[in-house]
Amino acid sequence: MGSKDSVATLKGVGKQAAETLQEMKIETIHDLIMTFPYRHEDFQLKDLADTPHNERVTVEGRVESEASILFLGKKKSRTQVRVLVGRHLVKAIFFNQPYVKAKLHLGEIITLTGKWDRGRQVITVSSHSIGPRTEGADFEPVYSLKGSIHQKTFRKLMRQALDLAKEDIEECLPKRFLDTYQLASIQDALEWVHFPPDGEAVKQARRRFVYEELLMFQLKMQALRKKNREEEGGSFIDYDLERLKVFIDALPFDLTAAQKRVVNEICKDMKEPFRMNRLLQGDVGSGKTVVAAIALYAAHTAGLQGALMAPTEILAEQHANTLAEWFQPFSLNIALLTGSVKGKKRQLILQQLAAGEIDLLIGTHALIQPEVQFHKLGLVITDEQHRFGVDQRRVLKDKGYKPDVLFMTATPIPRTLAISAFGEMDVSIIDEMPVGRKEIETYWMKKEMFGKIVGRMEKELSAGRQAYVICPLIEESDKLDYQNAVDLFQQLAMYFKDRFTVGLMHGRLHSEEKEQTMREFTEGKIDVLVSTTVVEVGVNVPNASFMLIYDAERFGLSQLHQLRGRVGRGSEQSYCVLLADPKTEIGKERMATMTETNDGFVLAEKDLQLRGPGDFFGRKQSGIPEFKMADLVHDYRALETARKDAEQLINSEEFWQADDMRCLRRQIEQSGVLSGGRLD
């Protein structure tokens, strides 16, 4: 019997079990063997003197008292017995297991596993066995199961499968990797992950599978990157360096060292014969727009058109105004195309664009409508790229003949996630703020300080500045949050009556109404904006100097940082107040971290540690794969190593020809990356 045979051939697998296994995507013996436990129960005997409070523990002891039962209601009970464990006389408590009373006899040896309460000297028992501890089975695998299959049954099937087909599993990692990193062979790793003799074996099995998983993923990413660069080709943008230098010198400010480095990386890509596919990361206010302007002007000097796509009309308008100011002395014809541009005006823009009379088109998703045709599109830039779906980005890329593509984001993404989610892209980072930009002072205050905070806000408003008040939006209770914002709006409107104008923005407004409210705030017609919806990333209101975030503990660190970045965009000192009463230690840590640093990348790393990669982007479509073993937070060193190894392999002749690379090559071919299939 081999690993490719059906699980139904295993002893003890009937029709129902086979159907349940199929639901778990286990059809062959190979599928079964490669189903890893999500944790291991540690049944090693521990000394209670060394066991911390609230830890899970396994001990062996002697029954020292008669068991007593207290019935607590329908089918609820508590059985208690005293057990001598070494020098400790402890209480063992069994909930809802009245039948154990008959099994517990004075003087009998018993093995208990449960939660240890050090202060009360109590073990709350989760599992037990009568008699001394049997040798072996110190580490038991625990699998994620469905239906009527129990852990014990699954372990028996696993033992049978390994004995029959373990040797049949092919070793995919070349010997030199196993030797260099001292990794276990596939056969040893499989035995140890399912039936470990000790804790070290579990660790070694995990090391091997983590590296293999990350290497396979990175090989696919690097193969996709190589394929895109070589097969897609791209436009060689032969820009005029002297004209570009004149444009940069004419800007009303000097570039930071980080901006210069990033501009060089982008310009180098544009000169290459392959298509640029680059992600530009920069913290809020780090100056990504000027980098985009330089790239667009470079394309213009090569006789090519540029396109800049933003997620909202107001953001597109702001980009258009800023760029028009910078490009004004250089006679670029700039047009703005959004959903609001209709009729003859729209037709004229479309005609001029197709004729090549428009050099730069700025807009929203209106740019990807079928009737929008460019004459010679050379560079596409999308702002806040995560706000657009993959298909929307692809349509814009296909508008020209393989234009270079630059994705921009103000959401600092930790390096580990950037490598994983955007592994097929090159990543540029602006990690320096422009000179003279004042740090936003951030304070964490409790709810009872609300009156004092409003007083501080009033001081800013009296000095002619504006303020944001943000309420969280929680999908489960849209009604409640709507009411919260309305209450807050009414309170502030009453308090500031006849002195300052208060506006309200919430999820129930139509997009046109939201745009209108935001525009009034931008133009200074509204002094205080109360909002349940996250105020658009990138919206620039230099006069706003005060932000109050209500129930701040309901936001992630990266969200809080994005919100904070809406103020501090002018020359005045700005303030951000987090109003929060977090109940958990993690919540308190998040608030404290926000007051300690203004660095988005530091916060992003912290957020990743506190929340994990699945929640970091706030959605599952983040592009981060679900790994069986690897954890992007804890295994970042292995990820860096795997990326470096994958890059080297993909670009070497040996990888595509050597016999010991055949298994790795086959995995890439099966993923569909090389044949134009999409990478999952």
TrEMBL record:
Annotated keywords: ATP-binding, DNA damage, DNA recombination, DNA repair, DNA-binding, Helicase, Hydrolase, Isomerase, Nucleotide-binding
Residue ranges occupied by any Helicase C-terminal domain in the UniProt entry: 463-609
Protein name: ATP-dependent DNA helicase RecG
Job description of the protein: Plays a critical role in recombination and DNA repair. Helps process Holliday junction intermediates to mature products by catalyzing branch migration. Has replication fork regression activity, unwinds stalled or blocked replication forks to make a HJ that can be resolved. Has a DNA unwinding activity characteristic of a DNA helicase with 3'-5' polarity.
Lineage of origin: Bacteria, Bacillati, Bacillota, Bacilli, Bacillales
Single GO MF descriptor: hydrolase activity
Catalytic reaction annotation: ATP + H2O = ADP + phosphate + H(+); Couples ATP hydrolysis with the unwinding of duplex DNA by translocating in the 3'-5' direction
InterPro entries given in the database record: ATP-dep_DNA_helicase_RecG (IPR004609), DEAD/DEAH_box_helicase_dom (IPR011545), Helicase_ATP-bd (IPR014001), Helicase_C-like (IPR001650), NA-bd_OB-fold (IPR012340), P-loop_NTPase (IPR027417), RecG/Mfd (IPR047112), RecG_dom3_C (IPR045562)
Similarity annotation: Belongs to the helicase family. RecG subfamily.
E.C. number(s) listed in UniProt: 5.6.2.4
Name of the gene this protein is made from: recG
Listed Gene3D superfamilies: Nucleic acid-binding proteins (2.40.50.140), P-loop containing nucleotide triphosphate hydrolases (3.40.50.300)
Domain Helicase ATP-binding: 269-430
Name of the top EC class for this enzyme: isomerase
